[in-house]
């Protein structure tokens, strides 16, 4: 490995900037995916470095989620490797409980990320066979601190939700009311008494509409496309847990049919409220397109009662109005963009074989965790925390095996060298 470093120094002035050799993989991202990978590597005895652009772990959860958020799935489907949730946690832990779990997890495995390190670029240097990861400090100061990390393995753990998606809607820039993305929304308290247009009908859009309604706002939710709405629980059991159990014995298409029948029995006909179902089943749609069905926690009841209005797609915005595709005009005070997030990998990773232009691995689950030349990805499965945990264990097992073999060989070489030195004196 030292020979590689010498070749690197010849290739470019190694000491022209602060340069750090990492004796193990560099993990980019200290969210649940990065923490899970670091924990599994720790169990394998492999050293690592975690780089995080923010000043805390799980910044998405800590800074860009609303107050009422709870895990949508039962806790057994959301725990990270090696450490389950505490027994006294409810079946659907709150935002605060999940953050406490992650902080305890990091402490347990002695994971100490380098915070405020924003990766500007990462590329594989074929001359030396190593990854070069350049960062800049995100701490506000007059001095711009740049660091280059040199490593053999690079783990991309920035996840599916690194950057918020801002839609390009005609006239949005002309709208005179308040425009807020869901990542900045905390509570409906500040929207009390206001007419709010919620753009997006996924789980976030539906839950934010419910929260606005509970704070005496008047929300209208835009449902432009078809959407699956399922009860979070069916007869007291988790709908997702039921689906996972059934898929062990039954084909996907049959499970989807069964879920829709059960959903109709519990929720009734949702299409008469403007919630048209896709032709593709809910589980198949999640597996193929990554589109998660809405798990209803009370929003549908507010839609039935008329407290939440369902409206079709948007044509354009005006000063304090929105024109819908059906020609209807609504007076609104604020716009809440529940338009989701995207991967930011293409903006910094200089690589075109493993990742596609949309920032996701080209190979589908369960093969999307391993690239070439020591490149790995965790948390891009579109299967939530359970998918990230699976990736993390695979990555750590592979790196750990190589690490143990090479460490064993190195010990043998060091022992032989020591004996020769003694014999010379």
TrEMBL record:
Any Pfam family matching the protein: FMO-like
Keyword Flavoprotein: yes
Reactions catalysed, as given in the entry: indole-3-pyruvate + NADPH + O2 + H(+) = (indol-3-yl)acetate + CO2 + NADP(+) + H2O
Alphabetical list of InterPro entries matching this protein: Auxin_biosynth/cation_transpt, FAD/NAD-bd_sf, Flavin_mOase-like
Annotated GO biological process: auxin biosynthetic process
Keywords on record: Auxin biosynthesis, FAD, Flavoprotein, Monooxygenase, NADP, Oxidoreductase
Molecular function GO terms recorded: flavin adenine dinucleotide binding; indole-3-pyruvate monooxygenase activity; N,N-dimethylaniline monooxygenase activity; NADP binding
Cofactors (names): FAD
Pathway linked to the protein: Plant hormone metabolism; auxin biosynthesis
Keyword Flavoprotein on entry: yes
Protein EC: 1.-.-.-
Signal peptide: none
Family as reported in the entry's similarity comment: Belongs to the FMO family.
Official protein name in the record: Flavin-containing monooxygenase
């Amino acid at each position: 490995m030292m020979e590689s470093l010498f070749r690197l120094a010849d290739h470019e002035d190694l000491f022209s900037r602060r340069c750090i050799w990492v004796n193990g993989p560099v993990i980019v991202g200290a969210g649940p995916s990065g923490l899970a990978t670091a924990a599994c590597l720790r169990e394998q005895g492999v050293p690592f470095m975690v780089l995080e652009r923010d000043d805390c772990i799980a910044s998405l959860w800590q800074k860009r989620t609303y107050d009422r958020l709870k895990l949508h799935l039962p806790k057994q489907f959301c725990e990270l490797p090696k450490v389950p949730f505490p027994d006294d946690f409810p079946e659907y832990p709150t935002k605060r409980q999940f953050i406490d779990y992650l902080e305890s997890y990091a402490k347990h495995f002695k994971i100490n990320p380098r915070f405020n390190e924003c990766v500007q670029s990462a590329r594989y240097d074929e001359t030396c066979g190593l990854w070069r990861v350049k960062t800049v400090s995100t701490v506000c100061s007059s001095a711009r601190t740049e660091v280059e990390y040199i490593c053999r393995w690079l783990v991309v753990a920035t996840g599916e939700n690194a950057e918020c998606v801002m839609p390009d809607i005609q006239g949005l820039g002309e709208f005179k009311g308040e425009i807020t993305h869901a990542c900045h929304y905390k509570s409906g308290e500040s929207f009390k008494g206001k007419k709010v247009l919620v753009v997006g009908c996924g789980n976030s859009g539906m839950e934010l509409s419910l929260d606005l309604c509970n704070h005496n706002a008047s929300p209208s939710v835009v449902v432009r496309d078809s959407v699956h709405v399922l009860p979070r629980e069916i007869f007291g059991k988790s709908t997702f847990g039921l689906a996972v159990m059934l898929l062990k014995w039954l084909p996907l298409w049959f499970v989807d049919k069964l879920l829709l029948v059960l959903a109709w029995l519990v929720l009734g006909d949702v299409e008469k409220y403007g919630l048209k179902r896709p032709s593709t089943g809910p589980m198949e749609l999640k597996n193929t397109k990554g589109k998660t069905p809405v798990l209803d926690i009370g929003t549908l009841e507010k839609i039935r009662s008329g407290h939440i209005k369902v409206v079709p797609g948007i044509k354009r915005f005006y000063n304090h109005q929105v024109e819908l595709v059906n020609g209807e005009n609504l007076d609104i005070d604020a716009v809440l963009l529940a338009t989701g997030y995207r991967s930011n990998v293409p903006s910094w990773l200089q690589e075109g074989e493993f990742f596609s232009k949309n920032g996701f691995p080209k190979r589908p689950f369960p093969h999307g965790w391993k690239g070439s030349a020591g490149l790995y990805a965790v948390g891009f499965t579109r299967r939530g925390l359970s998918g990230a945990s699976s990736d993390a264990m695979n990555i750590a097992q592979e790196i750990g095996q190589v690490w143990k073999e090479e460490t064993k060989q190195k010990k043998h070489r060091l022992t032989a060298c020591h004996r020769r030195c003694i014999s010379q004196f």
